[in-house]
Every structure is written in C-alpha cells, then in structure tokens.
Amino acid sequence: MSCNSSVIRLCASSVGQAPQAPVHLMPCEIEHNGPAQVNQYFTATTKDQKQDKSVSFRGRGLKGQKISCPQGYTGLVLKEINKPGSDQEDRTVKVSSVFDKMTYWNLETPPNSDDTIVMAMDWPDLAEAIHAPVED
Q1: Cα dist. 92→3, 20, 32, 96, 123 in Å?
Q2: Contact 67, 112 (CB under 8 A)
Q3: Which GO biological process entries does UniProt record here (predicted)?
Q4: Which of the given ranges, 32-46, 51-65, 109-123, has the highest pLDDT on average?
Q5: What is the three-class DSSP state of 126?
Q6: How many helices (H) and strands (E) does the chain have?
Q7: Is the pLDDT of residue 46 over 80?
Q8: Please, which pLDDT band fits residue 3 given cuts at 50, 70 and 90?
Q9: What structural domains does the chain harbor?
Q10: Are the C-beta atoms of 57 and 26 separated by less than 8 Å?
C-alpha cells in the first residue's frame, strides 16, 4: 500500500483579504473548474418557504436549507495556485472567499437533522463534550 506524502500549504495572508461569498453545497458532481454565473442561473429562481428553499436545477427539483458554521469556525473556499504534475507533489492553495453560513441542497427530499452536513456542523460541540475532562 502506497502512502501519499505530499503537503498542502495554505497562503495564510490570503485569509484576511478574502471576501464573504454565498456558498451552495449541491447533491451532484459538476465537471467544471472555473468561474460560473451562479447568481444569474441559480439563485434567481429560489423560492423560500419558511426556512426551506426549493429550486429547479437542470430540470431536477432541489430542496435546500441555510445552515451556519459552528460558533468559532469560518468556512474557507480554497483555490489551488499552481497545479502539480502528480499527486506526489506538494500543493499550495489560497483562500478565495470565506463564509459563515451556506445553503445545502438535497435532491427532491426536504432537508432534515439526519443529513450528513447538518450532523457535521454539530461535530465540534460533540467532540468538545466527549474530550472534556470527566469529573468524579
């Protein structure tokens, strides 16, 4: 079994310069790397219903909900500066934008507390609780 020993370096100076940006977590794989006119083709058709949102993307119904990052955490959107020639080479990334909340989308099913992204946002509090000192 091989071990990938490459390193990912973050340009720390890019964190303070990064703008806030809306983030959407989609239930699909989009085979495109690069800018997209998301505001023109996606959010313009969002319908808000209570806390839930619904939209049609390429003819498929999506149900979404906004969730916040755990308190004390900030989400980062990273962009690779120089793409290496192989997966063994070190990588360098910079922060292209930051976010404190995101909209996640399910394919045709309403969002709920059992969704993996919702459970992931609860993990820091849970991890702190299970690793806290135990009192007698």
Answers
A1: 19, 21, 20, 13, 27
A2: no
A3: RNA catabolic process
A4: 109-123
A5: helix
A6: 3, 8
A7: no
A8: low
A9: 7-27+36-129 (2.40.128.680)
A10: yes
Instruction: Give the position of tokens 């292209």.
Output: 96
Q: Order of strands across the sheet with 60-68?
A: 24-25, 101-107, 60-68, 52-57, 47-49
- How many other CB atoms sit within 10 Å of the CB of residue 22? 14
- Amino acid 6 reads S
- Distance (Å) of CA 79 to CA 18, 38, 82, 94, 99: 11, 17, 9, 5, 15
Element at 127 (helix H, strand E): helix 116-131
Residue 53 near residue 65, CB atoms below 8 Å: yes
